[in-house]
Each structure stands twice: as C-alpha cells, then as structure tokens.
Amino acid sequence: MNKKKLLNTNRISQTIAKLKAKNKKIVLCHGVFDFFHLGHLKYLKSAKSHGDFLIVSLTTDRFVKKGFNRPFYKENQRIELLSSIDLIDFIVLSDFHNGEKIIEKIKPDFYVKGPDYANNSKDITGNIYKEIKLVKKFGGKVIYTNDATLSSSSLLNNHYNNLNNEQKKYQKEIKKKFSFDKIKEHVDKLKSSNVLAIGETILDQYVFSESIGKSGKEPHLVIRDLKTETYPGGIIAIAKHLESFTKNISILSVMGESRKDLSFVNKNLNKNTKFDFIKKKDSPTIVKKRYIDQLTNHKLIGVYSINDRDLNKKEEDQLRKKIIRKIKKNTLLIISDYGHGFISKKLAKQICSKSKNIFLNTQLNAANIGYHTLRNYNNFNSLIINESELRHEFKDRYSNVKKLLLKLSQLINVKHILVTRGANGAICYNTNSGKFYEAPAFATKIIDKVGAGDTLLALFSICVFSKVDVEMSLFIASIGASISVETIGNSQSVDKKILLKIIEYFLK
Fold it and tell me: Cα–Cα distance between 70 and 388 in angstroms, integer?
C-alpha cells in the first residue's frame, strides 16, 4: 500500500491549499470502488483527463449500503488497490453517508460521476442533488463520463459467493417475478397509507459495560458501566420504521406518569407523527434495560421496570373511546400486544369487531410467558409472530412449522399468518389461496436481533394493506428486518431510500 497517497481527513485543506496555490486543477471522484473492474478504470481515466490532480473519496465500510455481505472488499483492501493505480494522486476516506463533507473540504474544480448518474432522478437517495449544489457553490463543475458501465453488484451477485445457495435461489426467483421499477412503484405508493399503531411504549436502555471479574466477597460477576443509551421501543419503534414511507401515522399507547419519558418520545418522533396515550396510574413507562459487553455487544443481563397489571376500568374505558374515535374505514391498524396489561381480552374482541384491517403481533417475552395468548384476537387481516411463539401456543417443539400454521389457521379467522424464524428466514401462509411463501434470512452481520420482528411487522403490514402482492410484501419486509439486525436495538429506523437502494443492488 502506498501510504503517501492516503490523505489525513484533518489535513486535506492544507494539501489542497498548496495545490491551488500552484494553479493546479483538482478532480474529485467519490464512491465505494468495491470489486474493482474495467468500468472503474475507464471512469478514472476520463476523470483524470479534466485536471491535474485526481483525488478519490472512498466510502468507509460502515456507510456502504449496497446490500448484504457488502462491501465485498474491506476498506483497507480497497485502499491498497486504489493506491497502486498511477492515475490516482490522493485517496481520502469518506466516513459519511454521501460526498458532501468531502466536497466541502476539497472544493474540487471538477466533480466527476459515471454515466449512470447522468439522469439524476435515478439516484434513489437523492444525494446527487445535494452534491451538485455544493460543487457549484464552490465554483466547481459536475461532469459525467460517457464510458461503458459495468456493475460490481451484478458481477458479485452472479459470479461470486457473496450470497449462500438459498439466497441465490431466492434471488433468481424474485428477479423473474418482480422488476426493481415495479417494486419501487409499489413502495412509493405507500405514502398514501393512513396508519394507526396501537401498543405499549417501551424505552430500551442499553448499558454498555465491561466485566471486572468475580466479586471478592460473593460468587457473582462484577461489571463496570461505561455509558447508557436509550432508544424508542415498543409501538414507538414500529411507527418510526414507517415514518419515511408515509406521513399519515398516529400512535395510541400507554405511558407512566413521568413527563421526562413523554418528552423523550416526542423528541424521537417526526413532527407529522401524532402521538396520543393514556396514563397508567401508579406505573412507570416500561423500561427494558440490557447490560451489554462493550467489546462483543453480547447481552449480559436484562432488567425490566414494569407494572403489568391490567388497566383499571376507567383507563380501559378511556382507551376504548380513543380507539373507536380513531378507527376509520381506510385506516391500517397495527397492533403490537406485548402482554403487559394494556389490551384486555374483552377490548381485543371489541377492536376486532370494529376493523378488518388489523395487522397483529402478540409477543412472548420473559415477563408474560405462560400468561399471554394470541387467541384473544379473531377475524382480522394478518398475524405476525415468531416461531417460538407459535410453538408455545401449541406446546409443540418439534412439529413442522407448516403443519402448525395450518393448525393455527383453523383456530383464528385471519388472511395471512407470517412466522419469523431467525436464521431460517420467514414463512407466510395465505389462508385464502392455501399457498406458502418463504424468504431466507439475508443479514450476515447480526449485531442485535431486538426489533427485527417490529420492522417486519411494520413493512409487511403497510405493503399488504396497500394491495402489494403478498410475495413482494414478504420480500420487502424481510430486507427491512435484515437491515434492522445490523444495528444496536432500535437505534436506527429503516429508511425508505436505503431499503430501495439495497433492493436495487440485490436484483442486479
């Protein structure tokens, strides 16, 4: 590796000032340059022809959003390859979502993009518009090369093992049935959906710690807490996953009496999202605290602050009136019942009698196991549960999942039952057609599984409600769920632009 070519981000301005003092014209190229090919080389040759010095801004690994197992080559490998190319004078790492920050530092005379960016509207992220505006602000010019293009993603998808056999088979089937343009068209139409999300508000606290060792006096592990981060969980997290897809979102929830908690929720919601709640007397807002090993991100222990008694009569009447007032014919009703005393059996049946557009998730967790059941609900659109919840419902560890799905479909009147299966992906049963649809798991860099089911619930619900094909809905939701497990908790919500970008590269 030619380390002399790698510019320190903090010293870029000094290097650029020296070059401009000598009236040198600076060309900037920005990209990932994963799986370098002839198209990249032609692009760099064309770029260099416009100036004296060619600087390549290279996106760091954590900001590469081109799908799973990407980048194929890590940033150190990509730096080593680019530094060996004589055309390139300097390389700078871009630890940002787009090229704006680097453009601000370099203020290039020419910002060169490949021919696939000539039609700016095809850039799903919209970053190209921001970059063009900034280049012109500093007196630069944007140029598009006209060389033949090759796709790294297409080469990797079709000739290299960046996907396992199950994923490749699924990818081939999806590409036959759905084009990216068709999927994007359906996703764009989701913006007209009117969503009402009902469920408990949960605050997910992550205490990042390091283990000190065994106590000197008693036989227990001692840990040192280093920092604490709080993320919106429960129904708030579900709603946030939809904020980039539609602006028509209302939340109806339950909280404790702390104004500080309400302030946290409001701060984390988009201004268009409407939040309404009932206050549960003598109760805290549910807090699920997890102690995490700082180095491995492994969970050490969980501590819940919760009062899971049922709502009293006054509180339940208040909740019922709010629900009835908010339910409309064209409303998508997402219910996430965490089993902490928010929705009684009586209220569940009343809700089901008011709407057929209900998409339900009833969650089994450490606090409600043995006391919670999905059979409180009946006659609704879709049920989303994980495999352990399905097996717990029938006290059946070993039977085939499809057999259990058929058994469940005979007990509750529902159009779709979707079961998440962790590393085995997801399976959906359409009770009307009698068909099963399956999708593999995509994520390989699993950081935290918390929130994957919430993501899948949110995206599958809004897609099916908007008349998107069930198989396409499962695909879109599965990609979203795979994105969510690559971050800690609900620290980041699924973004529509990133989701579409990953789908676009997956289908190349």
Answer: 30
User: What is the rounded end-to-end Cα distance, in angstroms, of the chain?
Assistant: 31
Mean pLDDT of the region 188-204: 96
Number of CB atoms found within 10 A of residue 474's CB: 25
Please report which helix (H) or strand (E) contains residue 152, including its range: helix 152-159
Q: Enter the DSSP assignment of 497.
A: H
Q: Which residue do the tokens 């801004």 mark?
A: 57
Q: pTM of the prediction?
A: 0.81
Q: Tally DSSP H helices, then E strands, for the chain.
A: 17, 19
Domains of the chain: 3-159 (3.40.50.620), 184-375+424-506 (3.40.1190.20)
8 CB contacts (<8 Å, ≥6 apart)? none
Residue 425 near residue 482, CB atoms below 8 Å: no
Give the Cα separation of 28 and 178 in Å (integer): 36
User: Bridge partners of 278?
Assistant: 254
Cβ-count burial 77-116 (b if 16+ within 10 Å, e if not): ebbeebbebeebbbbbbbeeebbbebbebbbbbbbbbbee
Tokens of 167: 């994923």
List pLDDT tens digits, range 418-468: 999 988 999 999 999 999 999 999 877 777 888 888 999 999 999 999 999
Q: What angle do CA 492, 461, 465 make, to 5 degrees?
A: 135
SS3 content of the chain, % helix, strand, coil (to 5): 40, 25, 35
pLDDT tens, residue by residue, 90-117: 999 998 888 899 999 999 999 999 888 8
Residue with tokens 């871009």: 94
The alpha helices in 355-413, defined as continuous H runs, are: 387-394, 401-409
Q: What is the DSSP letter of 489?
A: T
Instruction: Give the separation between CA 322 and CA 198, rounded to whole angstroms.
Output: 11
Q: Is 432 exposed, middle or buried (0-12, 13-18, 19+ CB in 10 A)?
A: exposed
